[in-house]
């Protein structure tokens, strides 16, 4: 026991700089508003994988939560799959397969390469039920 105490006493903790503490606080202070339908219906009915959920919520936030000029149309700004790969530490194949799976489920539509359409309430039925329209985009 005394040898463990000696090690702990001699161990110096690494101090974080002020800048990194500020960045951490800033990152933790943001919130995203995701409709409850996602948790109550979409996750239950579609049985999405962890990677599909990560990518879907990333795109959803880019469209509906971040400032986005194409928000009225439900279209994400052009993104690079490398951003997703780096952010979530995924392989290129994992990202592409997740995007394809989300498209098969009907939760996402490809407008052109790396530009996606996601409904505000996830499905056409939910959009209709909640009164969501897309300025004649569809």
Account of the protein in words:
- By secondary structure, the protein is mainly alpha-helical.
- The chain has a domain at 43-130: Winged helix-like DNA-binding domain superfamily/Winged helix DNA-binding domain (Arc Repressor Mutant, subunit A).
- Helices cover 55% and strands 5% of the residues.
- It is built from seven helices and two strands; from the N terminus they run ααααααββα.
- The chain has helices at residues 2-10, 18-28, 36-46, 50-65, 81-88, 92-105, 124-130, and strands spanning 109-112, 115-117.
- It has a two-stranded antiparallel sheet with strand order 1-2.
- A hairpin with a 2-residue loop joins strand 1 (109-112) and strand 2.
- It is elongated.
- It starts with a helix and ends in an 8-residue tail after the last helix.
How would you briefly describe this protein structure?
The chain has 138 residues and is mainly α. It has helices at 2-10, 18-28, 36-46, 50-65, 81-88, 92-105, 124-130, and strands at 109-112, 115-117.
Helix content: 55-70%
The CATH superfamily name of the domain at 43-130 is Winged helix-like DNA-binding domain superfamily/Winged helix DNA-binding domain
Give the biggest sheet.
2 strands, antiparallel
The CATH class of the domain at 43-130: Mainly Alpha
- CA radius of gyration is 20 Å
- Oligomer classification: single chain
What order do the helices and strands come in, and which of them pair?
Blueprint: H1 2-10, H2 18-28, H3 36-46, H4 50-65, H5 81-88, H6 92-105, E1 109-112, E2 115-117, H7 124-130
Antiparallel strand pairs: 1-2
Helix pairs in contact: 4-6
């Amino acid at each position: 026991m005394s040898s463990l105490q000696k090690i702990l006493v001699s161990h110096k903790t690494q101090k974080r700089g002020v800048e990194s503490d500020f960045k951490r606080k800033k990152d933790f202070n943001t919130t995203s508003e995701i409709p409850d339908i996602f948790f109550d219906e979409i996750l239950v009915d579609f049985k999405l994988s962890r990677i599909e959920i990560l990518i879907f919520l990333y795109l959803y936030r880019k469209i509906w939560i971040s400032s986005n000029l194409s928000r009225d149309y439900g279209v994400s700004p052009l993104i690079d799959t490398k951003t997703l790969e780096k952010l979530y530490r995924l392989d290129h194949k994992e990202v592409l397969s997740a995007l394809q799976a989300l498209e098969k489920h009907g939760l996402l539509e490809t407008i052109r390469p790396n530009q996606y359409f996601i409904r505000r309430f996830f499905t056409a039925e939910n959009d209709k039920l909640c009164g969501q329209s897309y300025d004649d985009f569809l």
